[in-house]
Amino acid sequence: MNANHTTQTFRIESSSLYNPDLAPASTEKRHWGTYNFAALWVSMSVNILTYMLAASLIQGGMDWKQAVATIFLGNVIVLAPMLLNSHPGAKYGIPFPVLARASFGVLGANVAAVLRALVACGWFGIQTWIGGEAISTLLATLVPAWKSFAYGDGVCFLIFWLINLAVVLKGIEYIRILQGISAPILLGVGLLLLAWAYRTAGGFGPMFSAPSRFTSFPAFLKFLVPALNGTVGFWATVSLNIPDFTRFARSQREQVIGQALALPTTMTLYAMVGIVVTSATVVIYGTAIWDPVQLLSRFHSPIAVVISLFAILLATLNVNIGANVVSPANDFSNLWPRRISFRIGGVITCFMGVAMMPWKLLSDYGTFIFGWLGGYAAFLGPVAGIMICDYFVIRHRELVLDDLYLRDGVYEYSRGFNRRALIALSLGSGTALAGLVINSVRALYDYSWFVGFAVSFVAYYAMSRES
Question: Which of 68-72, 120-124, 204-208, 253-257 has the lowest mean pLDDT?
């Protein structure tokens, strides 16, 4: 028995599909409890993009009640696939790209992993651009002449990019000390902005009285649908790679409670700060300013600006590494486990983040919600539908763990690819994206995550039942 076990272990570890970063988490590493998962979501939710997502809804025309309801509903919805995909991670201790091998095949999983990784690279670039923008504003506060430097934003983007790269090269452990303090610091910045908005706008009354700019329900619905889809798409990324974190859970119960308590509540509460402050800018400046860095640049107190921007830099660095490097590093490692380590995968992420041109993704709220969030949701919704159908409906939560790391196992399918999954992915994504080119079915794209998820789930189930 022991000899057979040793032989099988050697076979797995010598496989081209194995490396220590992708291996099942050992018992010693499974020490995350309820608090850890709650803290993870507080750390990731309290960030500038949460603020900007909420603020973009105000800039798009919603009043504060409509924006809060949209954020809360979207996060309750995305919690469902989040918890479903969390289960196999906690049960088997495996990361997302390894779990994807069960449904897509040991090589086909790279399709799902690369789709997820490219989205993370885009988010990495967006967060890095925000950090660079904060550095540029900080320099302009300390050295006013910096404002006249034409390439200031680009130079500062490169500076913050190099800081992120240095942390990746140093190792993820290097940033753990920041995780405990970044969220409270950024929460403090939010409260500072809230206090400023209250005083400058003349209380909460004027802020909350800012009306919705939609004159009819059909006009409101036209904006609500893609806004809700974008809110779901905001965390659709992590709803796929959440096994990268739940593989370290002590129990299913603790990871479920921690996530269920922290995700919807933290996102909604911090989004509320963005909603209220952006509503105040309408009262104060006559226009909605959805970028907090740009808003801080209008402050007259250099000390307040410096402290706030430093806090934004610290928190953005933390969120960027935790939310946008861990997953793609694993995903790129899955492409060539013997040659691409977690660290090399992180370096690839840094360079891809620049190639995604984040300055264009953040050019305006429409590009951010309708283009970026809605666009990638058309691909990630189908991947989630296939994985959830495969694990819960087809396999009834039972996986052959060793075969996830072997070329000749049950997940080999046809030369490493499960054609049913790839066909279902194409059908789901194609259906959602059809709304981009056919105006009469625009709703398919506006609901890209939901449409893609449903079509791929049904298609994968139907094809799996026939085989």
Answer: 204-208
